[in-house]
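Phenazine biosynthesis protein PhzC/PhzF: structure, please.
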Amino acid sequence: MVLNARVTDYDVVRVFCGPRAGHGNELGVVREGSTLPDPADRQEFAAKLGFSETVFVDDPERGVIDIYTPTSRLPFAGHPCVGAAWLLDVPELVTPAGVVGARLDGEFTWIEARPEWAPPRTLRRYASAAEVDALQVPPPGVGAPPTPFGQWGRIYAWAWEDEAAGRVRARAFPGRDDGMDEDEATGAAALLLTARLGRALNIVQGAGSQILTAPQPGGRVEVGGRVLLERRPLRR
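Here you go.
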C-alpha cells in the first residue's frame, strides 16, 4: 500500500477548548480527501497520524466528510463534526449516518445531530463531581458489552456540579486497545446524555474541555464548543 505524498497536507484543530483556549481534543482534517480515496489507505493514514479521529473532506462545498479513528471508520462522531464545521464554514455536513446541521455563533461552533447516530456507550452517573474526578481508568472492555463500533465509547462517567444550572462534570473512558485510556472531549457522549436528560447542559470533561448542548425539535440535539487552529497544512 502506497500513500500519496500530497496527503501530508492536513490541518490540526483543537475542538471543545475551555474558556481560556486550553484543553479540547486534537483533530486531523485532510481537506483534499481526493488525494486518498481508498478507505484502506485512509485508515492507514489515520493510524499514522494517531489522533483520536481524522476527517477526510470529500466535498468542501457540500460538507461531505469521512471520519476515522486509528482503528476504525465511524459513521458519525461529535468533535470531528464540530471541528470540520468550523474549518469548512458550511451550513451542514454530510456523513454516512446522515446530514448534520452546522452553524457558527460567536466563539462557539454548533452541530445538530440525532442521538441514535452516536456510538453506544454506558452513561454512568456518580453522586458528585469529586467522585468523577477520583475515578481510575478501567481496563479495556469493562463496563459495557461489545458493540458494532468495537471498543469505542464504552463508559461516560458523569455527575451534576450544579443540577439547577445544568452544569455537569464528566470523563470518558473509551476502553480502546490503541493506547487511548481517556477521551478529553466527547461530543457524541454529550449528545447521548442530553437526549437522556432532556435538557441543555454545560459539560466540563477531562482536564477542562467545555461542551455545550441543547435539545432540539424532532429528537435532535445541538452540541457546541470552541475550536482553535493548531497547525495549517504543509504544502509540498
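Notes: The chain has a mean pLDDT of 89.
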